[in-house]
TrEMBL record:
PANTHER family: NAD KINASE 2, MITOCHONDRIAL, PTHR13158
Record-linked SUPFAM superfamilies: NAD kinase/diacylglycerol kinase-like (SSF111331)
Molecular functions (GO terms): NAD+ kinase activity
GO cellular component: mitochondrion
UniProt xrefs under Gene3D superfamilies: Probable inorganic polyphosphate/atp-NAD kinase, domain 1, Probable inorganic polyphosphate/atp-NAD kinase, domain 2
Protein name: NAD(+) kinase
Regions of compositional bias (Polar residues) in chain numbering: 226-236
GO biological process: NAD+ metabolic process; NADP+ biosynthetic process
UniProt family annotation: Belongs to the NAD kinase family.
InterPro entries to which the protein is assigned, alphabetical: ATP-NAD_kinase_N (IPR017438), ATP-NAD_kinase_PpnK-typ_C (IPR017437), NAD/diacylglycerol_kinase_sf (IPR016064), NADK (IPR002504)
EC number of the protein: 2.7.1.23
Length: 425
């Protein structure tokens, strides 16, 4: 199963404006960061991915294969070594402070290690941060990321650039409490289907295209419920259907759609407690406040040239007197796009129906708004080979008859920190 996703196209300046709305502005003694045991989650480099994909063949053979297909092998090796050197520096800095350190990768990251540590420290970019956060279900266990390559990527979920350049200084600042706590809401997904189908749900890691193991999930209401699977909690909704909470929480977004992107996705949607609406589209993207600056933003943002064309049409064809300069168009565009984003700790979701196929009826269009905010979104699949994808990383099968409830619960929030972009000393 393969999906095509746009990269994390996030505007750092706009992100800072939004994230600044939900920071706690002081740190009491009770809020001090506990760092006796640290789990470092490492980034899977391109070299490691290729090595794994080719059954760990000798480097000399791997080099021949990659050079033959036109890959820049030298750059790949250099980037790999830089990444590992950065991770080793972070680990050494922790150890020099008397902190116990364990290392994990995408393939070894598990619940046992998460339970062992006081803090999870992803070293990579936003993708590594999302991976690390997806399996941390304890709302009081901090996830604090270092951007291993600030010269290549913004890493907006990670600590600021100066922390990457001065790891020891960053750790000292964390130890002394020179930061502000942040809560980031995450999406809980509950799947409803026939019990026999729920028992066979196996997620696929989209980075390795291998089936991945996942931790057991406690009932969100802490009430005893019968379970048909050792990996999920199952509760009977009636004699023929059962429900499970997926073991991954989405920090950015959940995407639902056909695996083949050129195929139409047939989905029925219920926004909050409204009516069910049948949709034909290229998929559904449901986002958090954190994700509102990412894929959601890329799907819905306007471009200056489009706004300028609309302003000219209003002026020339509808005799509306307005400033149709490029500068004014940029101002309108920025103001519109800023409204797409909302705070990371918001209790609301935002949904976007991608390339919605609709037949407008004036004055009342059929269907629903192609994007809006909601407290909960229900989705019923009528697809043939679809997936429900958490943060562009893990895909669950989501075919005809399967239903998903997407919602936010305060107890699912992620604890992280914010530090100033400039040195705190």
């Amino acid at each position: 199963m393969a999906f095509s996703f746009p990269g994390l196209r996030q505007n750092k300046e706009l992100c800072d404006k939004v994230s600044g709305l939900n920071r706690k502005q002081h740190v009491s003694n009770e809020q001090r960061l506990k760092m006796q045991k640290c789990l470092i989650v490492s980034k899977v480099t391109r070299y490691e991915y290729e090595k794994h994909s080719h059954d760990n063949i000798e480097d000399s053979e791997l080099e021949k294969i990659l050079r033959k297909r036109g890959s820049d092998y030298d750059f790949m090796i250099t980037s790999h070594r830089e990444q590992k050197a950065f991770e080793e520096n972070v680990a050494k800095s922790f150890k020099d402070m008397g902190i116990q350190v364990e290392m994990a990768s995408r393939l070894t990251y598990n619940e046992e290690l998460i339970n062992w540590c006081d803090v999870v420290v992803p070293c990579g970019g936003d993708g590594t941060f999302l991976l690390a956060a997806s399996r941390v279900r304890d709302a009081n266990k901090p996830v604090i990321g270092f951007n291993s390559a600030p010269h290549k990527s913004v890493g907006r979920l990670c600590l600021p650039t100066w922390c990457s350049n001065d790891v020891k200084g960053a750790l000292q600042a964390l130890k002394e409490g020179r930061f502000t706590w942040m809560r980031r809401s995450r999406i809980r997904t509950t799947i409803t289907s026939e019990p026999k189908l729920l028992d066979t749900i196996t997620p696929v890691d989209l980075h390795t295209l291998h089936y991945c193991r996942y931790p057991p999930v406690s009932n969100p209401d802490d009430s005893p419920e019968p379970s048909k699977s050792p990996n999920f909690n199952t509760e009977e909704s009636n004699s023929t259907l059962a429900s499970k909470v997926l073991p991954f929480l989405a920090l950015n977004e959940v995407f639902i759609g056909e695996s083949v992107t050129s195929r139409v996705s047939l989905l029925r949607l219920q926004i909050d407690n409204g009516q069910w609406t049948h949709t034909k589209s290229s998929g559904l993207c449901v986002t958090t406040g954190t994700g509102s600056t990412s894929w959601h933003y890329s799907i819905n943002c306007l471009r200056t040239h489009s706004v300028l064309e609309l302003m000219k049409i209003l002026g020339e064809d509808f005799n509306i007197n307005m400033d149709t300069s490029l500068e004014k168009a940029r101002e309108v565009t920025e103001r519109y796009n800023q409204k797409l984003m909302f705070p990371a700790d918001s209790e609301y979701l935002a949904y976007s129906v991608r390339e919605y196929i609709t037949f407008e009826e004036w004055p009342a269009p059929r269907g629903l708004r192609v994007r809006d905010r909601a407290a909960a979104v229900r989705v019923r699949s009528h697809c043939t080979d679809a997936g429900l994808v958490v943060d562009g990383s893990v895909s669950f099968p989501f075919n005809d008859g399967t239903e998903a409830l997407l919602e936010i619960h305060p107890e699912d929030s992620l604890m992280t920190v914010h530090m100033d972009d400039t040195l705190p000393y």
